[in-house]
Amino acid sequence: MSVTTATPGWARPRTRPGWLARLFDSKPFLIVACLFPAVGLLLVFLTYPLGLGVWLAFTDTQIGRSGVWVGLENFQDLFEDRVFWSAVFYSVFYTAAATALKFGLGLWLALLLNHHVPFKSIIRAIILLPWIVPTVLSAIAFWWIYDAQFSIISYVLVDVLGWRDTYIDFLGTPWAARWSLIVANVWRGIPFVAISLLAGLQTISPSLYEAALLDGASPWQRFRHVTAPLLMPILAVVLTFSVLFTFTDFQLVYAITRGGPVNSTHLMATLAFQRGIPGGHLGEGAAIAVSMIPFLIFATLFSYFALARRKWQQGESND
């Protein structure tokens, strides 16, 4: 009886991976490598301009001449500048009025589109048009609508309906110009609010409304106790972005009024540009821009604390 002995096969010895392979297998290196492009872009296009702007705010730099450190002198001058305080007042008023109108009309439109209405898809596409159209084109259109001589609104009221004897000077007086700009901003901002809130409404389960109906809840009670609490996180985000976009608005205001009449429609952004670029005082313009930062921080903190209330939506405490 012969016994066959199995001969073990030859195995290639395992080689140690090279330093490059070990490097790409390292999790910390991969994290740094993936984040480096984003961090680099933020440093170049965000951190450097922001840091330079803050530095210029404390100098007397002008176009064509490097400045020297003057400390808080620019801010002291602004504290005594009536035009600056007028811009602060109108920036806050413009943001509050436009945001309130955009949210009221946007929420109403979102609630309407959340129901089964004919041609709902076409209506949604039409609603997005004001948001899609470039801001400058919208500003030119409104500038024509508000023109003292060729206004279509004045033409209808005077020549067609005969309700007025004279044309309306929308941009000739301070408060008329201010409200005209608010109307233009609301027209552009409603689509963003409406579509965002509509997306939030469609995440709410219909069974919650059915349960509320079985309990005899009225439409207002269903909105107050079902819709509003579940929509609050999205409301906080949309409100924050709306406040930031409105407070830092530049194109619409500058293209329609350029801050007039008599500097009455200047926002802080437009005044900073006017003082810094056409006026040549970069330090003063930068100081006005830096003065906007506390308002923006307040809006961001509001969003953070509002989003913290999402805990109770998941059945947790709100500590």
Outline of the structure:
This protein has helices at 19-24, 27-57, 73-79, 82-113, 120-127, 129-132, 135-145, 152-160, 174-201, 206-214, 219-247, 251-256, 268-276, 282-291, 293-307, 310-313.
Report what the structure shows.
The chain has one domain (about 75-310): Orthogonal Bundle (MetI-like fold). Helix content is about 70%, strand content about 0%. It is built from 16 helices and no strands. This is Sugar ABC transporter permease. Pfam families: BPD_transp_1.
Which short descriptors sum up this protein?
16 helices; mainly alpha; MetI-like fold; 319 residues; 68% helix
What is the second-level CATH architecture? Orthogonal Bundle
Kindly state the percentage of residues in helix. 55-70%
In the CATH scheme, the class would be Mainly Alpha
CATH superfamily: MetI-like
Order of helices and strands: HHHHHHHHHHHHHHHH
Strand content: under 5%
Structural class: mainly alpha
Write down the overall geometry. Answer: flat
Helical segment count: 16
Task: Describe the main β-sheet briefly.
Answer: none
What is the radius of gyration?
A: 29 Å
In whole angstroms, the N-to-C terminal distance is 84 Å
Instruction: Give the total of beta strands.
Output: 0
User: Mean pLDDT, rounded to whole units?
Assistant: 85
Q: How are the SSEs placed, and which strands pair?
A:
Elements: H1 19-24, H2 27-57, H3 73-79, H4 82-113, H5 120-127, H6 129-132, H7 135-145, H8 152-160, H9 174-201, H10 206-214, H11 219-247, H12 251-256, H13 268-276, H14 282-291, H15 293-307, H16 310-313
